[in-house]
Amino acid sequence: MNGYYPVMLQLRGERCVIIGGGRIAERKVQGLLEAGADDVLLISPQITLPLQKLVADGSLQWQCRTYQPSDAEGARLLFAATDDIELNRHIADDGRRAGAWVNTVDESAGRGFLNPAVVRRGDLLIAVSATGASPALSIRLKRELKQQFGEEYKYSVEQLRRLRDYMKTAVLEQSEREALLSLAADEVPLQSGAEIEITAWVERLRAKRLED
Ligand SMILES: C[C@@]1(CC(=O)O)c2cc3[nH]c(cc4nc(cc5[nH]c(cc(n2)[C@H]1CCC(=O)O)[C@@](C)(CC(=O)O)[C@@H]5CCC(=O)O)C(CC(=O)O)=C4CCC(=O)O)c(CCC(=O)O)c3CC(=O)O
Ligand SMILES: NC(=O)C1=CN([C@@H]2O[C@H](COP(=O)(O)OP(=O)(O)OC[C@H]3O[C@@H](n4cnc5c(N)ncnc54)[C@H](O)[C@@H]3O)[C@@H](O)[C@H]2O)C=CC1
C-alpha cells in the first residue's frame, strides 16, 4: 500500500521550485502564494500571462530557460510540472536525490507529495484528497465544503483563537479549559459582528457547562 500522511507545512523562508510554466504550474504557484510562500522560483522557457504578472509584481522569481539537474539543489519542495513525462520523472529523481519533497503532476508521480483541494476560511484550512484516484471527486467535495463552511467561519475561528489564547492564562485548570473550549466550538458558526467580549463569553460557557 502506498499510504499518505497529511501535514500542514509552513513555507515562509523555504525555497519552492517549480519546473514548467503552463496552466498546471500556474495553479501550483497560486497555491504556494496563498500559503504564504515567499521564496518561489519557477524555471521554464515559457510561462502563462498570469505567471508573468506574478513575476512583474515580485511575488515569483523566474528563470527563463529549460531545466537542468542542479535546479533541484536547495529546493525544499520541487514541482515537476512540465508536459514531458520522461522529463518529469528525471526531475523527480533529481529532487529526491537532493533531499526535496517532490510533486509530479502526471502519472510518473512515484514517491513524493500530492496537492489536496483546499478551502480556506481565515485560519480554518480544509484539505481534501482522493490521493490520485479522482481529482474530480476532490473538486466536487471542495465545492460542497465551501457551501457547508461559508465565509462566517473566518470570523468564528478568529474568535475561537482569541478565546483560547485568553483561556491559556485565565482558566488554569486543564479539564475545565477543555470542556469550555469544546462548548465554544459547538457554538460555531457564530453570528458575525463586533468582537465578542471574552470574559462574558467565558462566564456564559461556564454557566452552560453547569447546565449540562
Ligand atoms: C495525483 C495528483 C498530483 C498533484 O498534482 O498533486 C494529481 C494528478 C493528476 N491530475 C490530473 C487531472 C486533473 N487534475 C485536476 C485538478 C486538480 N488536481 C489536483 C491534485 C492532484 N492531481 C493530485 C491528486 C489529488 C486527488 O486525487 O485528490 C488538485 C486537487 C490540487 C492541485 O493540483 O493543486 C486540483 C484541483 C484544484 C482545485 O480546483 O481546487 C483536474 C481538473 C482541472 O484541472 O480543472 C484534472 C482534469 C480532470 C481529471 O483528469 O480528473 C491528472 C491527469 C492529467 C492528464 O490527463 O494528463 C493527473 C495525473 C494522473 O492522475 O495520472
Ligand atoms: N496534476 C494535475 O492536476 C494535472 C496535471 N496535468 C498534467 O500536467 C502536465 C502539464 O500541463 P499544462 O501545464 O497544462 O501543460 P503546458 O503545455 O501548458 O505547460 C508545460 C510547460 O512546461 C514547460 N517546459 C517544457 N519543457 C521544459 C523544460 N525542459 N524545462 C522547463 N520547462 C519546460 C513549457 O515551457 C510549458 O510552460 C500535462 O502534461 C498533464 O500530464 C494535467 C491536468 C491536471
Automatic annotation (TrEMBL):
GO terms for biological process: siroheme biosynthetic process. Keywords: NAD, Oxidoreductase, Porphyrin biosynthesis. Its EC number is 1.3.1.76. InterPro entries: Met8-like, NAD(P)-bd_dom_sf, SirC_C, Sirohaem_synthase_N. It is an enzyme of class 1 (oxidoreductase). Pathway: Porphyrin-containing compound metabolism; siroheme biosynthesis; sirohydrochlorin from precorrin-2: step 1/1. The keyword Oxidoreductase applies. Gene3D superfamilies: NAD(P)-binding Rossmann-like Domain, SirC, precorrin-2 dehydrogenase, C-terminal helical domain-like. One of its GO terms (molecular function) is ferrochelatase activity. It catalyses: precorrin-2 + NAD(+) = sirohydrochlorin + NADH + 2 H(+). NCBIfam families: cysG_Nterm (TIGR01470). PANTHER family: SIROHEME BIOSYNTHESIS PROTEIN MET8 (PTHR35330:SF1). This is precorrin-2 dehydrogenase. It comes from Paenibacillus catalpae.
